[in-house]
Amino acid sequence: MLEGKAVIDQTDMLQTMQQYALDLAAKALDFFDVTEPTEIARFIKKEFDRTYGPGWQCIVGTDFGSFVTHCSGCFIYFCIGSLAILLFRGSAGPEAEAGQVSALETVEA
């Protein structure tokens, strides 16, 4: 795992979901090397899909920009060392069908 504590930059998730995301990231970094961001992202996304239902998207890397539409209460952007992790439930989630979506731009990773 990367040295250092996870630092949450932006989120609108409940505290329990935030902690689950951080725990999964730590677990993923135990399983995969930091040079395997796609595998880390796949692991986190599949676990969130399994736990909270389908529609989750995960982006992992050291340098990326994004502009996403996400369901309310389903967004977190955090860093562990130099690795940035963006996790959100996209418009496929049930909240989007009810019209509860937000747009959030993340520029720095």
Automatic annotation (TrEMBL):
One GO term describing the cellular component: microtubule
Keywords in alphabetical order: Cytoplasm, Cytoskeleton, Dynein, Microtubule, Motor protein
Entry-linked SMART domains: Dynein_light
Annotated signal sequence range: none
Keyword match Thylakoid: no
A GO molecular function held by the record: dynein intermediate chain binding
Superkingdom field: Eukaryota
Transmembrane segments: none
One Pfam family named in its UniProt record: Dynein_light
Subcellular location: Cytoplasm, Cytoskeleton
Gene Ontology BP, a term: microtubule-based process
Keyword Cytoplasm: yes
Main location: cytoplasm
PANTHER family: DYNEIN LIGHT CHAIN (PTHR11886)
Family statement drawn from the similarity comment of this UniProt entry: Belongs to the dynein light chain family.
UniProt-recorded name of the protein: Dynein light chain
Source species: Nyssa sinensis
